[in-house]
Write a sequence for this structure.
């Protein structure tokens, strides 16, 4: 029997099977391969005939599948009769023979083991939590595979390990459970730094525990004495590990089309819960970078999602959500909920769960009142939020949004970023947002800057980017009663003023000298020229428009000297120099009527099609 329930706002599906329905249970599990599954077992503990109940998680092989005709469950709690037992962290084996073996190892020993559970009912639950495969399970017959897996992963992660087996010593053989961290491997052995070790049949025996833990390092092998001969090995990659927090890692990424380099040497990474902004002009390589990450374009270099090579698109697909700029992943003649169901089915989520989850997301995004309206009837902002809801319904861990605010008025852009903040904070989804709006960098934890003619230019926090300019992110702001080209030129030529940015009547002076020193020179110079000062503001924080003004003018000035293309290295060398004699052009400021010294305009109208590298 299969049903869906809600408990404490947690949605899950539940299925109940009798002991004779093993094949049906196997099929139910296989159909939910991408999710972590919980198993509850009730039955009879054969040695005492007491009632048994226990629950735990279903274990899978390294490819995410269960073993053929056998289910393995690691228990985290259990009772025999009225007594709690130390059943936690015990692995049970369920197969067609109906009887369950919590621990049995074929070896000559004076202690015979007859622990058998005769099951009556199995209850399986799916909480729709993606299986990140941080539990990797091996049996004794797969020991060589276990060694190979551990050898590869301990180079990158701290791996905790659980081993059930029997320790073979010269004078005794003791069933044992061992936990710890993987120290190293060699051709035949796994070396473990011990946390704990005990006999599962006599867990409170201090003498046995003391003997098992007499050394802080223990060997696991299929042969030899004073080693654990394993029955089961379970590796775990915990959430607390630093590398597991690397949601997306891009290193030395380059893309070529027909022999022409489109982007090269792109490097950045984001951690769990962060917002990354990919900002730049049309044609600079933003969307090319995104296409490479999503597997839509061949590339060279390294891209990893949760440590998984991005070439394995099927493996990373369940963790990703994508909101395209052109809203192409929606049916215009479907309503919001119909779209959610249509696109959510591909991830194996049942329709009723999609509807429940979709209603909540639509409510959180402020469009639940239009849930039953067809997409074509919605406003631009509502369509954008509907597209985001569709991309979220399978609970992705990483959501890509390509120009989500393009075409929206300033108020709608501001509101959409409020909703993106909800997605990031309340749903715990890491965001990658592509945009050409400079002010949107301020919403991001980290930023990738792309420039036309250079491509990938810089990766840093917004504050880190601003601190690369003269003044380390601060400026002296001068407001004049009347601004003209002459007054701007006068300010530019004041000693130790490295850069001047005009914002309407406000003029920002960038310098590595203290603001007080520059202010005295400004006052003296303007008084001598009979130019009236309305006000002076010290240590004004610059914004990303100022940052782009600076690097864009620098780029254009270098091109004027004869260089058709300025390399990233040359740009940074120029930024490190002081006292450039720049002649910036004047262009409209982003989303304002202010005049800003900037050498390039960010094209808000171009779309990425064909060979465009936007």
């Amino acid at each position: 029997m299969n049903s869906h329930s809600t408990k404490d706002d947690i949605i899950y599906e539940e299925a109940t099977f009798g002991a004779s329905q093993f094949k049906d249970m196997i099929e139910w599990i296989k159909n939910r391969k991408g999710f972590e599954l919980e198993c509850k077992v009730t039955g009879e503990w054969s040695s005492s005939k007491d009632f048994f109940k226990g629950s735990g998680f279903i274990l899978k092989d390294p490819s995410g599948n269960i073993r053929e005709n056998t289910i393995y469950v690691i228990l985290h709690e259990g009772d025999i009769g009225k007594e709690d037992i130390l059943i936690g962290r015990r692995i049970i084996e369920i197969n067609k023979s109906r009887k369950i073996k919590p621990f049995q190892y074929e070896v000559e020993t004076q202690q015979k083991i007859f622990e058998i559970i005769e099951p009556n009912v199995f209850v399986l639950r799916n909480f729709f939590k993606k299986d990140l495969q941080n539990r990797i399970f091996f049996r004794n017959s797969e020991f060589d595979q276990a060694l190979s897996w551990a050898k590869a992963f301990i180079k990158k992660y701290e791996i905790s390990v659980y081993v059930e087996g029997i320790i073979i010593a010269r004078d005794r053989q003791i069933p044992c459970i061992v936990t710890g961290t993987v120290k190293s491997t060699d051709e035949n052995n796994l070396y473990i730094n011990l946390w704990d070790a005990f006999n599962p049949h006599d867990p409170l025996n201090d003498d046995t525990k003391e003997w098992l833990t007499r050394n802080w390092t223990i060997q696991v092998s299929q042969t030899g004495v004073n080693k654990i001969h394993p029955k089961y090995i379970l590796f775990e990659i915990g959430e607390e590990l630093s590398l597991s927090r690397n949601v997306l890692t891009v290193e030395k990424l380059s893309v070529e089309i027909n022999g022409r380099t489109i982007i090269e040497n792109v490097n950045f990474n984001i951690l769990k819960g962060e917002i990354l902004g990919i900002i730049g002009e049309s044609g600079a390589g933003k969307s090319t970078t995104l296409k490479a990450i999503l597997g839509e374009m061949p590339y060279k270099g390294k891209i990893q999602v949760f440590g998984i090579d991005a070439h394995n698109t099927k493996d990373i697909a369940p963790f990703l959500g994508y909101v395209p700029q052109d809203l192409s992943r929606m049916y215009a003649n479907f309503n919001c909920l119909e779209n959610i169901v249509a696109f959510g089915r591909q991830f194996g989520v049942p329709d009723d769960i999609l509807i429940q989850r979709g209603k909540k997301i639509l409510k959180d995004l402020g469009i639940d009142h239009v849930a039953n309206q067809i997409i074509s009837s919605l406003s631009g902002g509502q369509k954008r939020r509907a597209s985001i809801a569709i991309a979220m319904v399978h609970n992705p861990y990483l959501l890509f949004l390509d120009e989500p605010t393009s075409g929206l008025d300033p108020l709608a852009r501001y509101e959409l970023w409020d909703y993106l903040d909800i997605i990031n904070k309340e749903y715990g989804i890491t965001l990658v947002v592509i945009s050409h709006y400079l002010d949107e960098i301020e919403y991001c934890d980290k930023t990738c800057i792309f420039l036309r003619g250079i491509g990938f230019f810089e990766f840093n926090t917004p504050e880190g980017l601003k601190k690369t300019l003269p003044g380390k992110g601060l400026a002296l702001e001068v407001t004049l009663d009347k601004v003209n080209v002459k007054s701007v030129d006068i300010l530019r030529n004041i000693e130790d003023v490295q850069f001047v940015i005009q914002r309407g009547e406000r003029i920002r002076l960038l310098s590595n000298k203290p603001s007080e020193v520059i202010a005295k020179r400004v006052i003296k110079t303007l008084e001598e020229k009979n130019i009236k000062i309305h006000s002076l503001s010290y240590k004004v924080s610059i914004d990303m428009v100022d940052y782009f003004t600076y690097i864009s003018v620098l780029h254009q000035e270098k091109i004027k000297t004869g260089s058709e293309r300025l390399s990233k290295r040359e740009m940074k060398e120029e930024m490190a120099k002081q006292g450039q004699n720049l002649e910036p052009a004047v262009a409209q400021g982003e989303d304002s009527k202010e005049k800003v010294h900037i050498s390039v305009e960010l094209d808000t109208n171009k779309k990425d099609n064909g060979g465009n590298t936007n």
Q: What stands out?
A: The longest strand covers residues 117-130.
